[in-house]
Amino acid sequence: MPFRPLLALVLAFCLTFISAPSSASAAFVLGNERGNANFGDIVNTGQANSCPAVKSSSGGSINADGDFKDLCLHPTEIFVKVAASKRKKAEFLPAKIISPVNNTSIDQVYGDLSGGKFAAKGGIDFALITVLSPSGEEFPLVFSVKDMVADGGKSISPGAEFSGKTLTPSYRTGDFLDPKSRAKDTGVEYAQGLVALGGDDEALERENIKRDLTGNGVITLSIDSVDSATNEFSGTFVAIQPSDNDLGSRDPVDVKITGNLYGRKA
What we know:
By secondary structure, this protein is an alpha+beta fold. The chain has helices at residues 3-29, 34-37, 39-42, 202-208, and strands spanning 62-63, 67-83, 90-99, 106-112, 117-124, 126-132, 138-144, 146-151, 155-156, 161-168, 215-227, 232-242, 254-265. The chain folds into 2 domains: 3-37; 51-174 and 212-265, Beta Barrel (Porin). The chain is globular and about 65 Å long.
């Protein structure tokens, strides 16, 4: 084949792949769907991790009875309860979110408001987060509002607080294999070469015998702004819950999570 026709064919092939994403992206952004319409403004900005907010000038109150939906909680600060040094007692120290950076929010949580209680029933109700403490130690955790029941009264209004408990599930599933192929659900407990110890060593037993341990946390939802016309509300939250226990092989520490919240009465 002559060189020039071959070169023209290669260039045409490359231009097809260069131009195709542009037109596809334009159709995606300019579509009629709400999510697609904002895609171009949000992608790669980290804004998708944020929760909506109600204007601070909005007022009124919402009857805390019925159902709620679209509850969103965006962590802005995380603290781990550790000792700054061997001579000091454990206290909540600020930690840095290292993974994932822009995917830490809980969103689209729905549930029941009957009796003035937020009772979560489902939604994207947990997020896996890893933070770095000032000592350099990493702490994985499951930020969760699973089974949340928070009581606060008969109305959602500025200044109202709803407090209650949450469930913190295991960070790993029972099929997770550790570096020595041990897991909870596979029946593999002892790594080759360690069988002779017979599990008499307590630390080794904790590594060998994997357990699916859940935890409990506490949470307070503080309402700052309410729009009674749209049944929307926003504010802040404070949650304290345990960190990951690595299927029973390590002791969890308390983690305090603070941030912004948003929701709507259904």
